[in-house]
Amino acid sequence: QVQLVESGGGLVQAGGSLTLSCAASGRAFSTYAMGWFRQASGKERESVAAINWNGGITTYADSVKGRFTISRDNAKNTVYLQMNSLKPEDTAVYSCAGRRGGVWDSWGQGTQVTVSS
To answer: For 27, which of 3, 43, 57, 116 is 20 to 30 Å away at the CA?
Structure first.
């Protein structure tokens, strides 16, 4: 497993932008696929975006396609989520996670993103 710490959350107006970062400890980071998940109050956690080990493959939830971009820098052991054109419905706790062997086995503590209308 890797230890993950998110940062970059906060309060932003609708239409604004935020960039989340997820810093990982350990030398295994580059072997992990990484993802961002979110959980709004009273709702189930959902996958937002994912990226493979070298950044060559990315996937997005339909609700964020064209607005969010996931990227990673293996030299810095960090994965990012650039969020543009934010909407109130994007309000949630955002967590990063690492997947290896088909299992999401490493999770960060989450960071709150609040989008005001």
So the answer is: 57
Contact (CB, 8 A) for 40 and 110: no
Q: What are phi and psi of 80, to 5 degrees?
A: -125, 155
Residue 117: closest CA among 74, 88, 97, 78 = 88
Contact 22, 78 (CB under 8 A): yes
How many residues are recorded in the chain? 117
The pLDDT of residue 20 is: 98
Predicted pLDDT of residue 1 = 83
| Per-residue pLDDT at 27 | 81
**Cβ 95 vs Cβ 6: under 8 Å:** yes
